Amino acid sequence: QVLLVESGGGLVHPGGSLTLSCRLSGDIFNIETFGWYRQAPGKEREFVAVMSSAGGPHYNGFVKGRFTISKDSDNMNLFLQMDSLNSEDTAVYYCSAEDRKFDRVHAFWGQGTQVTVSS
């Protein structure tokens, strides 16, 4: 019931930057966590960054300080600022949210946005 739509992907040169956005809508009760994941060709989906609605971000080791996850005060928009991109960052990036309805928590995913880093 929670809808997520990513935007902001595209083609960038090595060393460039992109900001990904994720808009949330639908029947939202209580968002507990937000996250960004990615899947590159020939590889499995991997965690990029996650954070709780109250803060406390965590990043995968390959980020190395290059990315920043954030959200707006209403928890309706999620962002991923990516700097110093390289070819290994090429992947489809997905945003996710875990929504708690009473005592049950469900994870929802967007359709993904393509990020291509190439010279």
Q: List unreliable stretches of 5+ residues.
A: none
Tell me, rounded to a whole number, the average pLDDT.
94
H/E series: EEEEEEEEEEE
Coarse morphology: elongated
Number of helical runs?
0
Give the strand content: over 45%
Rg for CA atoms: 14 Å
| Protein structure class | mainly beta
Q: Total number of β-strand segments?
A: 11
What kind of sheet is the major sheet? 7 strands, mixed
Q: How far is the first residue's CA from the last residue's CA?
A: 40 Å
Q: Share of helix among residues? A: under 10%
Q: How would you characterize the overall build of this protein?
A:
It is a single chain. Strands 2, 4, 5, 6, 9, 10 and 11 form a seven-stranded mixed β-sheet that branches. The chain has a four-stranded antiparallel β-sheet with strand order 1-3-8-7, with no helix packed on it. The model has no long low-confidence stretch (mean pLDDT 94). It is 0% helix and 61% strand. It contains no helices and eleven strands. It is elongated and about 50 Å long. It has strands spanning 2-7, 10-12, 18-26, 30-39, 46-52, 55-59, 67-71, 77-82, 91-101, 104-109, 113-117. The protein is an all-beta fold and 119 residues long.
